[in-house]
Design brief:
CATH topology of the domain at 84-109 and 135-290: Rossmann fold
Distance between the termini: 57 Å
Number of strands: 12
Oligomer: single chain
CATH class of the domain at 84-109 and 135-290: Alpha Beta
Radius of gyration: 20 Å
Largest sheet: 6 strands, mixed
Shape: globular
Length: 291
Amino acid sequence: MVTKKKKYDAVCGLEITGCTGLKSVNYKGKKYDFCDPDCYQRFKKNPKRYVEGKPLIKLKNVKKSFMLGKVKTEVLRGIDFNIWEGDFVVLIGPSGSGKSTTLNMLGLLDRPTSGEIYFGSKNVAHLKDIERAQLRSKTFGFVFQQYNLIPWLSALENVTMPLIFAGKEAKNHSIQKRFKEIGLEHRMNHKPATLSGGEQQRVAMLRALSNRPKILLADEPTGNLDSKTGKKILDMLYRLNKKEGKTLIIVTHDATIAKEADQILSIQDGVIIRDHHHLRKKYTDKMINHA
C-alpha cells in the first residue's frame, strides 16, 4: 500500500492533504497550494520568504493528553502551524479548545505528549529542563491575564527579575525610563497588592520586555481591564510588533485584536480549523457593526 505524501500550506503550515478548494501559485516551476485566500495573498506578496526561509516556530503533529485518574483527556489532537519572524498571530477558540495549552507549548512552558516543535532548525519539544529555561529567558516574554507578579517584590523588583535569571545586568536607569513611559514612575517601589489591575498589567508588560525578547506571548492580556487601560496595553503591543519587529502571539476573544493580526488561527477541540480568511472577514464585520 502506497502512503500518500502529506501536503502542507507553505505559509501557515496547516496540513492540506486531500483538501478541496485550494488556491495555487506556480513559483520557479513548482506548484504551491494554500488553504485559503489569506495565505495565498501573503505568499504572492513575498514568495521568497516562504520558499527559501524557515519559520521562526513550527509545530508538527503536536499532541497533548492528560490522565485524570483512569480517564485520558486529549487537549491537543495533532496541531500543525508555522509562525514567521515579526508576525502578529492571534489564537482564538472557545474555552477548553486548547488555546492556552498551545501557547504554553510555544513558550516551552509545557511539553507535548508527542510531535515536534521547531525553533528555527532545532526541535525543542523535549529539551532538558535547564535548556528550556535558558531558551525561555533569552527568547520569550510572557504576559498573562492574571499578571502573575510576585506579591512580596516591588514593581521595580518584579521587572528586573527576568534579567537576574538570564544573568544580565539590571540597568535601573533604563528600567526607570520605561516606568516613566507608561506613567508609573511614582509606583515603582509599590508592591502588587497596592496597584490597580491596569497598573499591574503594565508592570507585567515591562517585566515581559525587560529581557528584550524576540517573541512576546500574551494570554488574554486585556481580559481583566477596562477599555481605556486595555487600549493602552494593546497600543504597546502593536508598537512593539510594528516598530520593533517583535513576534507577537496573543490568545484572545477580542475582535479588536483579532482583526489586526497577520494570521488568525482558530483552535477547536484540539485541532486547527482551516478558516483564516473567513475569520478575518467575521472580525472585521463585527467591528464595523459595532462602530
